[in-house]
Design goal:
The chain has a two-stranded antiparallel sheet. By secondary structure, it is mainly α. It is built from 18 helices and two strands. The model has no long low-confidence stretch (mean pLDDT 87). The N and C termini lie far apart (44 Å). The site of 4-fluoro-L-phenylalanine has 17 residues, from helix 1, helix 2, helix 5, helix 10 and helix 14.
């Protein structure tokens, strides 16, 4: 089952890429408005509990599958014989297609971020520019959104084409520390605002009456999205891991860092948003509307605006690199004769074609509404709240029934790392009973 493939050049390389891929728009753009939509603190608590009790066991399972097979998801699935063979093939295909669709949709939002980076740069030359024009110009122009998405995809393509160590590890390795410094600096600035107290109460005080029947499935979908679980991404990253690396500890560090960054992003975004407006907390345009408004109403605000959106762009680039890498590595593992470069070009091209649909969501396709939502929001809900939890549910069965016991046990009960039989038992129990039950409950509550 094992094949020779590139490994991360250092242990740290794995963390940089896994965390770089996990921390993206999900933490900084999506988390705050989903929290706003679901009433604040109680949802944050639900999210944190689910991240550690549902997301983490699945994340460990995906990494293990990759490390054990030394292959990406589709090719690992093709190695498994037996009655589940056909189902596995389909499941892995759905996962990879999900990564492709998310990449396309992600490219559009990343394009928005690029637009704000450029607008803040221009604001140095034209200081009289109004911040509300930033968003209005973008929303009314589908071609501009498609163009920006294509620029983003070209940048992502260039990095992925260079391969694991040359491209991905080096790029994300350089970007991650900068990202963390910027984030902490902006959070400190945000927490010094008069609105910080209200924001903290909103974010950290749990009022369970604010949760609704779709909160559970929304929280689950977001946990999977933000931890990059269900796309086969962690299988790919696990396949490049060093033999001596302890998977459960690695998974724990990734999940903890990712959840910590989401909370950090909440602490950064809410004081600023509350400072300028009370009503925008539930809107997907939350950070694109309220934050520029806040930045531009402050002295040297354009410097902070530029820093913030640059930081967000770095995060979205890291995550997009992860998404493209997953699709490319799966195709290259299945059809090696095609070559990495050709595959990366084809996949980026397809992602661009798909991205044109959400690009026109707020302009030419504005009239296309389902359940009161536009194209882009419906794509988000279908992919993240419906398909992703379903794939994660199937994933828990695969890890439980298809992945052999030996490698699983070895990782948990290895005395040279950390010998915990009870933790191993708990992990297996959660994948077999707890996780399927909670995902099914989420669906039932949603459709009741
Ligand atoms: N976890 C990323 C985010 O929170 O923005 C999204 C993502 C990146 C999902 C990479 C899947 C993936 F492979």
């Amino acid at each position: 089952m094992r094949s020779k493939r590139g490994l991360w050049s250092t242990k740290f390389g794995f963390y940089l890429v896994a965390i770089g891929s996990a921390c993206g728009l999900g933490n900084i753009w999506r988390f705050p408005y989903i929290v706003g939509e679901n009433g604040g603190g109680a949802f944050v608590l639900l999210y944190a509990v689910l991240a550690l009790s549902v997301g983490l066991p699945l994340l460990i399972g995906e990494l293990l599958l990759g490390k054990y097979t030394r292959r990406s998801l589709m090719s690992a699935a093709s190695q498994i014989k037996g009655p589940s063979f056909k189902a596995l093939q389909w499941l892995s295909l759905v996962s990879i297609l999900l990564a492709l669709f998310i990449l396309s949709y992600y490219a559009v939002i990343s394009g928005w971020v690029l637009h704000f980076v450029m607008q803040f740069v221009v604001s140095f030359i034209k200081p009289q520019m109004e911040q509300k024009d930033f968003l209005a110009t973008l929303m009314s122009n589908g071609l501009l959104q498609a163009g920006l998405a294509s620029v983003h995809l070209v940048l992502v393509f260039i990095v992925v084409m260079k391969g694991v160590q040359e491209g991905i590890e080096k790029w994300i390795g350089n970007m991650m520390p900068l990202f963390m410094i910027l984030l902490v600096y902006l959070m400190a600035k945000s927490l010094s605002l008069p609105s910080a107290e209200n924001a903290m109460r909103f974010l950290l005080y749990p009022d369970f009456s604010k949760l609704n029947s779709s909160s559970l499935i929304s929280a689950l979908g977001h946990v999977f999205f933000t931890l990059s679980v269900g796309f086969g991404a962690m299988v790919t990253f696990g396949s490049y891991m060093h033999e001596g690396e302890h998977v459960p500890s690695a998974g724990f560090r990734v999940a903890l860092t990712d959840s910590f960054i989401s909370i950090l992003a909440g602490l950064l975004v809410f004081p600023m948003a509350l400072q300028v407006s009370q009503s925008r907390l539930t809107d997907p345009t939350l950070i694109f509307e309220a934050l520029p408004m806040f930045f531009m109403s402050n002295k040297a605000g354009n410097v902070f605006g530029l820093v913030f959106f640059l930081c967000l762009y770095i995060a979205s680039l890291g995550a997009s690199i992860g998404l493209l890498e997953v699709v490319v590595s799966n195709v290259v593992d299945r059809i090696p004769s095609l070559g990495r470069k050709k595959v990366a070009i084809i996949i980026s091209g397809i992602a661009f074609l798909i991205s044109t649909i959400p690009s026109f969501s707020s302009s030419n396709l504005r009239q296309v509404q389902v359940a009161g939502r536009g194209v882009l929001e419906n794509i988000d809900i279908i992919l993240i709240t419906w398909v992703l939890p379903f794939v994660a549910l199937c994933g828990s069965f695969v890890i439980t029934y298809v992945l052999p016991d030996k490698p699983k046990q070895l990782e948990f009960c290895n005395p040279s790392h950390f010998n915990s039989t009870s933790l191993y038992g708990f992990w297996k129990w959660s994948l077999k009973y707890y996780i399927p039950a909670i995902i099914i409950l989420g669906f039932i509550l949603r459709f009741l």
